[in-house]
Amino acid sequence: MAAPAVADETLSHTPLPVTLLTGFLGSGKTTLINYLLEHNHGERIAIIENEFGAVNIDGALLKSTEDVEIVELSNGCVCCSIRGELTQALHELLAKIDSGAFRADRLLLETTGLADPAPIVQAFFVDEIIRERIMLDAVITLVDAIHILKQLDEHRVAASQIGFADRIILTKADSVDEAHKEMVLSRIHAINAKAEIFEAYQGELPKEIWIGIGAFDLSDSLHVNQGFYQAKDAKNIQFKSFSAQKQTQSWSDDITSYVFEAGELDIKKIGAFMETLVEEYGNDMLRYKGVLAVESDERRLIVQGVHKVVGFDFGSPFEDERKSLLVVIGRYLPYEELKVQFLQTIA
Ligand SMILES: Nc1nc2c(ncn2[C@@H]2O[C@H](COP(=O)(O)OP(=O)(O)OP(=O)(O)O)[C@@H](O)[C@H]2O)c(=O)[nH]1
């Protein structure tokens, strides 16, 4: 009789939310986490850290709080050993929680600056137990305003980190002039048109901006970004539209945003379009998300995916105009051809 009781209890767990924090070397991940820990009240956070050489985050600061559990993955880069070390660490953490040895309200996974988020994100959808017990809240990418242009020119992974982001935190904007910042914003936006961008100085951001945002929820909205949030400090955050000159810049990042827009769609046709798209181009599609209006249902049809892992679900009904928007962040997609096919799915 004992076994079924354990199984029932396991099923009844509310999934543990995990925030994936990524960003190139030195982009300010530790600074942001430290600010969070200093201002965290009451929530118990388990931090899975993946550092080359096991460089720990500020030990003194961590020791000062009882609400943090650190799990270190020091065996190289998490993206290279994803099915092994990360999955195992997550299982061990769940076992600790189940045994009552640790209580966690959420997880924070800090990757190394050189990690490609692709396999890490996929790990949360592949393992059955992890899929059931842990829920990916969002991918947060830090971007170093001083160095990102060079990093993008020299390291493919930098574009992948931006491409995977649900939200982007721009750091060190205090150390660049306006023209440079605008160029950085334009380039980020060209890679990822859907992630909202927040500036932060020395990690000073209210945690609500990057923790618990539910980017994979069905209620999450989707839009193409028109600007960024300028933050003088944690209390003073203002939306600013992108500069009008942004389109005049030129660069050649292979990862870019493809935007598909239409009115009401035929559910069978859009289903077939998505199936073919994912089958043929899934390997080149980092992240994609659609909020679609289908003729047969008043609710929003939400589609989201990471490479070939795709999910469809109905969300809440449309509040305003019934419009379909699909944003794909990928590389080398035949956009014009796909746009024609997408428009052929109109009801
Ligand atoms: N000027 C300025 N410096 C910053 C800001 N945020 C972080 N830094 C500095 O950038 C350096 C790197 O920050 P970290 O927080 O260690 O970066 P990281 O992403 O954890 O670094 P790795 O783990 O080595 O990849 C530190 O010296 C920080 O003080 C900022 O908003 N402005």
UniProtKB/TrEMBL annotation:
Residue ranges annotated for the CobW C-terminal domain, each copy included: 256-343
Transmembrane feature ranges: none
One MF term in the entry's GO annotations: hydrolase activity
Keyword match Nuclease: no
Keyword field: Chaperone, Hydrolase, Nucleotide-binding
Family matches, as Pfam families: cobW, CobW_C
Boundaries of every CobW/HypB/UreG nucleotide-binding domain copy: 17-198
GO terms under cellular component: cytoplasm
Record's keyword annotation contains Nucleotide-binding: yes
Catalyses which reaction(s): GTP + H2O = GDP + phosphate + H(+)
Family per similarity comment: Belongs to the SIMIBI class G3E GTPase family. ZNG1 subfamily.
Alphabetical list of PANTHER family matching this protein: COBW DOMAIN-CONTAINING PROTEIN, COBW-RELATED
Function: Zinc chaperone that directly transfers zinc cofactor to target proteins, thereby activating them. Zinc is transferred from the CXCC motif in the GTPase domain to the zinc binding site in target proteins in a process requiring GTP hydrolysis.
Protein name per UniProt: Putative GTPase
